[in-house]
């Protein structure tokens, strides 16, 4: 096994005002940072305001460097990662358009890297995650089976200020530990494979 540091990116998949996603993103980011041999970074899509994808060439076939400066920065962050945790709400039975756009601007930089999810909302964000797993497969990623699902009845009181986010996350400590261990195991294995 390699002793190289693993580079794990936690991606905040919502950009709307008043979003809840930065709370679980900050929580899971801190949990990842506790692990030895891991360099964790929080990526906020607000910091990467990419236009909606309208390029003449698919990133799967592009031969030249990306032209848009924000896309270059975003692609660079994805390229340096060994694994991802996507934090996503569920909007109308799916995930946010801004998150799909962030996936669509990149192709080869996602490939052969594990991804898992922290989701919330109706049905615990499960429908959002299920759709994201399909996208990950198309991008030749390795979507993990385990994910953190926070049901609406637990999240909405926190959003409304009637409950404490810390209590919500404390109850998820054990599944988060399992999730992170699985992600890091896959990240090590796939990093070795990419380095061969």
UniProtKB/TrEMBL annotation:
Organism of this sequence: Candidatus Lloydbacteria bacterium CG22_combo_CG10-13_8_21_14_all_47_15
Protein name from the UniProt record: Nadph-dependent fmn reductase
Top-rank taxon: Bacteria
Ranges where the NADPH-dependent FMN reductase-like domain occurs: 7-147
Pfam families given in the database record: FMN_red
SUPFAM superfamilies referenced in this protein's UniProt entry, alphabetically: Flavoproteins
A GO term, aspect molecular function: oxidoreductase activity
Annotated Gene Ontology cellular component terms: cytosol
